Amino acid sequence: MKQLEYYSSYIDDEVRKGKTEEEVLEALGDPRLIAKTIVQTYVMSDDPTRSYYKAEANGFREETYEDNSDSQSNTETKFEEYYSSITDKFIASFEIYIASLMDKYSNTFDIGEDLQNVRSLRTTIITYVLVIQSAKEEWLAGPMEELRARLFTYRKIWGIEVIVLNEDMAKRYGLIKEY
């Protein structure tokens, strides 16, 4: 499972940076939530046992492995389109930003003045933020882990963080305003 590889790699990287394994595990948060996120993300994979895990993730165990390939296929297609679209937008935004810093992209109208004035990315922390309207806070871990996995290479090379928030959280952090 990609999600397990992600966590294993993340823990190893943080330990190499000097943190203890206990510190890393504490920073990751509730292990039950992480396990639930892994299972929920796995449900969307191509593994033939996914219907078993889907039943498990929904709070009940179903011992049959019925073939719901049409509805699963449709759900998987929507899932893939949704996350691919978000990932593509994050990557395009980042590439435009880097190109503008290198004076290779002249249309900097949409890039904030503070970002235009950055001259060293060494100390700059770049964070991708996705705000999902009307989402319950406990639902946000799954999308965040999916995006982190899809953006793994960019995160590893550039030290990019990924955060997924709902509207209330974004307002609390001052990222969006009420009108």
Blueprint (SSEs and pairs):
Elements: H1 2-16, H2 21-28, H3 31-43, H4 50-57, H5 69-101, H6 113-116, E1 127-132, H7 141-150, H8 152-158, E2 161-166, H9 167-172
Parallel strand pairs: 1-2
Helix pairs in contact: 3-4, 3-7, 5-7
Q: What is the overall silhouette? A: globular
Indicate the percent of residues in helices.
Answer: 55-70%
User: How far do the termini sit from each other?
Assistant: 43 Å
Task: Return residue spans where pLDDT drops below 50 for at least 5 consecutive residues.
Answer: 45-65
Q: Radius of gyration, Cα only, in angstroms?
A: 19 Å
Question: What does the model show?
Answer:
This protein is mostly helical and 179 residues long. The protein is 58% helix and 7% strand. It contains nine helices and two strands. It has helices at residues 2-16, 21-28, 31-43, 50-57, 69-101, 113-116, 141-150, 152-158, 167-172, and strands spanning 127-132, 161-166. It has a two-stranded parallel sheet. Helix 3 (31-43) packs across helix 7 (141-150). The N and C termini lie far apart (43 Å).
Question: What are its keywords?
Answer:
179 residues, mainly alpha, two-stranded parallel sheet, globular
